[in-house]
Amino acid sequence: MELEIVQAKLKSHTTKILGSEKFSKYAVMLPLIQKEDGVHVLFEVRSLNLRRQPGEICFPGGRMDALDIDEKSAAIRETSEELGISVEKITGVYPLDFMVSPFGMMVYPYVGIISSLETIQPNPAEVGEIFTVPITFFIEKEPEIYHIEFKVEPEKNFPFDLIVGGENYNWRTRGMEEYFYMFEDKVIWGLTARILAHFIELIR
């Protein structure tokens, strides 16, 4: 192969996260709503009939599909479908930092304003209930943070004879922080709590 061909291919390449084409892409919305006592954050409790994470607390959102123009439109669509409101009721939508999950997901969070709590009619197939928490609660209260360490377990036929150190190779392991907020009888944790903590860091 000629050097000119190599350079031409490099010049036309658009950089991305290596391997990201294999990741599932999700978009979520952190909904804000104005109430009499100030701004609240709205949460969903996932339906107990769902296969994945039934009964857990989350933000509206889901996997992007081929009809979504971009991540923002996916977040708005999912919020509209899950809360049973028109897209016109979702305004002031701004992006937060996107996240690369160790579980093969890229998550694109947004913040948006829901114009009226009274118009919300949650989709019972996905949402068991909704509730709100004053934003001041999260501003005044730091999350509890716990650490998880991942173990390295190569498959049985892994070629240890090809690497220096063999079966005693000193693998680099990584950890992950899990965030928890407790509000009354509700436990907000995991990815939802991490997105929430990032949002509070930005506005505090």
What topology does this entry show?
Elements: H1 3-11, E1 24-35, E2 38-46, E3 57-58, E4 61-63, H2 71-83, E5 90-95, E6 99-101, E7 105-114, E8 127-134, H3 135-140, E9 144-149, E10 175-183, E11 186-189, H4 190-203
Parallel strand pairs: 1-7
Antiparallel strand pairs: 1-2, 1-4, 2-3, 2-8, 5-7, 6-7, 9-10, 10-11
Organism: Neobacillus rhizosphaerae
InterPro entries: CoAse, NUDIX_hydrolase-like_dom_sf, NUDIX_hydrolase_dom
GO molecular function: hydrolase activity
Short structural description:
The chain contains 4 helices and 11 strands; from the N terminus they run αββββαββββαβββα. The chain has 204 residues and is α+β, with helices and mostly antiparallel strands. β1 and β2 (38-46) form a beta hairpin.
Give me some keywords for this one:
single chain, 204 residues, alpha+beta, three-stranded antiparallel β-sheet, 11 strands, 35% strand, CoAse, metal-binding, magnesium, Nudix hydrolase NudL, manganese
Description:
The strands form two sheets. Strands 1, 2, 3, 4, 5, 6, 7 and 8 form an eight-stranded mixed β-sheet that branches. A three-stranded antiparallel β-sheet has the order 9-10-11. The termini are far apart. A hairpin with a 3-residue loop joins strand 6 and strand 7. The chain is built from four helices and eleven strands. It has 204 residues and is of the alpha+beta class. InterPro entries: CoAse, NUDIX_hydrolase-like_dom_sf, NUDIX_hydrolase_dom. Its cofactor is Mn(2+); Mg(2+).
